[in-house]
Design a protein that fits this description.
Layout: H1 8-24, H2 47-65, H3 97-113, H4 117-133, H5 139-143
Length: about 150
């Protein structure tokens, strides 16, 4: 695979910088009570988890930018080597994980080659297929990435 702008090390750095920015971008109002909130990302920051979060952010951006207009021209997703990234724990390495990861990479490649509603939905369905088998926690979140017509 050609070298990518989004290496796992760079993704990790970008996530850390983004988290720091969000943590210090404003102070809570003194007159409002501050409730205790659950962490946005409860799992450890494994390489695989970081890559998934990056891809989820890209899907959210595509839904906001391309989906409303139906114009997918120029839309792309990062191609990350999911099969090579360390998971949060070994329970995610279910039989077939490598196949899911390779199939997902093909869905992303097809989307990048010909971005459209159909190729976008194939990417989301690829996420769902793997997560229903290996890591069901994010399934409800992934379903929110579907296009309104699906």
């Amino acid at each position: 695979m050609p070298s990518s702008l989004f290496t796992p090390k760079r993704v990790s750095g970008l996530l850390i910088l983004g988290s720091l920015f969000l943590a210090f971008c404003g102070e809570p109002a003194a007159d409002r009570p501050q409730g205790k909130l659950a962490p946005l990302q409860p799992n450890a920051n494994s390489e695989l988890a970081q890559a998934m979060r990056l891809l989820d952010g890209e899907l959210v951006a595509l839904l906001a930018e391309q989906a409303p207009s139906g114009n997918w021209d120029g839309a792309t997703l990062s191609r990350l080597p999911l099969a090579e990234l360390a998971p949060t724990d070994s329970t995610m390495l279910v039989p077939g994980f490598q196949g899911f990861a390779l199939a997902f990479d093909q869905h992303v490649a097809a989307f990048n080659e010909a971005p459209s509603e159909a190729t976008y939905q194939a990417v989301v369905n690829g996420c769902l297929s793997c997560h229903q088998r290996a890591c069901p926690g994010p399934v409800s979140r992934i379903k929110k990435r579907r296009l309104a017509s699906n």
